[in-house]
Write a structure and sequence with these properties.
By secondary structure, the chain is mainly alpha-helical. The protein folds into two domains: about 70 residues, Rna Polymerase Sigma Factor, Chain: A, CATH 1.10.1740; about 90 residues, Winged helix-like DNA-binding domain superfamily/Winged helix DNA-binding domain (Arc Repressor Mutant, subunit A, Orthogonal Bundle), CATH 1.10.10. Helix content is about 65%, strand content about 5%. Strands 1-2 form a two-stranded antiparallel ribbon. A hairpin with a 5-residue loop joins strand 1 and strand 2. Helix 1 packs antiparallel against helix 2, helix 1 crosses helix 3 and helix 2 crosses helix 3. The two termini are about 40 Å apart.
């Protein structure tokens, strides 16, 4: 059965892995690891008609394991919300449900700057005009607000990034985040 799966799906799985890893030789290694897991876990497949979803879940988990090994703990970049989890749209909602309360908990100047720029879509130039502050002061408030938000998110969650720095997985540190506890 594993041989049939290889014939039918290995090209799709390899392409899927390559898009998330970037290194072709590493992608080949991950694909081999995926098929080892498939071989070991084939008996756990309960519904053969759901084989494709099962295969891609194993592949996705193997890629995440690879990134966890590569990036034991990396900084969260400015693209905080760039989650790449096709099977779990709830993941994006979870993060977003934490971000707004975190922004609201920031000191007033930073909170206002982030709400107006990040949530309401004002440019930093428009922000400076609305708040009647200099353009450089507006840029500084947004940048400092982002850094405070980034620190709050890193205290709340552990993030796993792909080779391009995009977030592909996260895990809540529930005991340390009041916002996440409120949003369960």
């Amino acid at each position: 059965m594993v041989e049939n799966i290889w014939r039918e799906y290995h090209k799709q799985l390899l392409t899927f892995i390559q898009k998330r890893v970037g290194d072709p030789s590493m992608a080949d290694d991950i694909l081999q690891e995926v098929f080892l897991k498939i071989h070991c876990k084939i008996d756990s497949l309960q519904q053969e008609r759901k084989i494709k979803a099962w295969l891609f879940q194993i592949t996705r988990n193997t890629i995440i394991d690879f990134h966890r090994k590569s990036y034991s703990k990396t900084d969260l970049d400015e693209q905080i919300i760039d989650l790449e989890d096709e099977n779990d749209p709830k993941a994006m909602e979870d993060i977003q449900s934490c971000i707004v309360p975190m922004i609201k908990s920031l000191p007033e100047g930073y909170r206002e700057a982030l709400i107006l720029s990040e949530l309401n879509g004002l440019s930093q130039k428009q922000l400076s005009e609305k708040l009647q502050i200099s353009y450089s002061a507006a840029k500084s408030r947004v940048q400092r607000g982002r850094n405070l938000l980034k620190e709050a998110l890193n205290q709340c969650c552990s993030f796993v990034h792909d080779s391009k720095g995009r977030i592909i997985d996260y895990e809540k540190k529930v005991s340390s985040c009041k916002n996440c506890q409120d949003n369960k």
